[in-house]
Write a structure and sequence with these properties.
single chain, alpha/beta, Rossmann fold, 2 domains, about 55% helix, membrane, D-beta-hydroxybutyrate dehydrogenase, mitochondrial-like
């Protein structure tokens, strides 16, 4: 099998050869056009070099506060540690912060004093309200509000539409969609004060639904449209709304733990056996 990198090199060489051949032809047939095309080509190459060699700017995290949901594991856990290492004041929202969850314990043990864990169940209005108050009380000195809110908390229920219960559909929507809406609405005043940004973790499943992921695809599609509407509304306030659409990171996010996945396979086999018996 031909390696993709090898194909890229071959295609680049073929493209460069074609361009040089065209320039050589133009130099004999149309000198003015030759100089024009050569100038455009050299300018484009120079522009690309400047972009590549120019020093990359990095946001200074000093005095900037970020609230992240779903930090018990996966993306949220990793992002909380990363932003803490960059100097941000991190509020790591964990479902099990007050219940001895391993994720919140590790964050408190491995990160600086700038990071604090916050108990939050995104389906609970009372816990969301309490989280907002905790953030207000612990904002860094000189900060007017939140630099960023990252809606990362999410769950899924795999299975074919016929076999997934309505209760499971409601639960996934309540966490993935209404949880995002609930937390965003609660924190928007703090975001507006700082002219910050809302980052919603969606999924490619919100754009391209796949079999066995009907609940998740439906919930994430709603997040996509909610984010787009919010972006228009927040433009006048200088607030940015960003959608992140990961693809195949189920194991990295702990959405499919081995025990959970194995149980799912067993249930599917029982379902197929029941159908065959009918």
């Amino acid at each position: 099998m031909v390696k993709p990198l090898y194909l890229f090199y071959c295609a680049s060489l073929a493209g460069l050869s074609a361009i040089l051949g065209l320039l050589l032809l133009l130099s004999h047939c149309a000198p003015v056009l030759y100089y024009l095309c050569t100038g455009i080509l050299m300018g484009s190459v120079g522009y690309c070099l400047v972009l590549y060699l120019a020093p990359k700017s990095r946001v200074n995290g000093n005095g900037k506060a970020v609230f992240i949901t779903g930090c018990d594991s996966g993306f949220g856990f990793g992002l909380a540690k990363r932003l803490d290492s960059l100097g941000f004041t991190v509020f790591a929202g964990c479902l099990l912060a007050d219940s001895g969850g391993e994720g919140s314990k590790k964050l408190r043990a491995e990160c600086s004093s700038r990071l604090s864990t916050v108990q939050i169940d995104v389906t609970d209005d009372g816990q969301v309200k309490a989280a907002v108050q905790q953030v207000k009380d612990r904002l860094p000195t000189g900060s007017k509000g939140l630099y960023a809110l990252v809606n990362n908390a999410g769950v899924t229920q795999p299975g074919e539409v016929e076999w997934v219960s309505i209760a499971a559909y409601r639960h996934v929507m309540e966490v993935d969609t209404f949880g995002t809406v609930r937390v965003t609405k609660a924190f928007l005043p703090l975001i507006r004060r700082e002219k910050g940004r809302v980052v919603n973790i969606s999924s490619v499943n919100g754009l391209y639904p796949s079999p066995m992921a009907g609940t998740y695809s439906m919930a994430k599609a709603a997040v996509e449209f909610f984010s787009d509407a919010l972006r228009h509304e927040m433009h006048k306030w200088g607030v940015k709304v960003v959608i992140v659409e990961p693809e195949s990171f189920a194991r990295a996010t702990d959405m499919f733990l081995p025990a959970v996945f194995n149980k799912f396979v067993q249930v599917r086999r029982l379902q197929h056996s029941s159908i065959q018996q009918l």
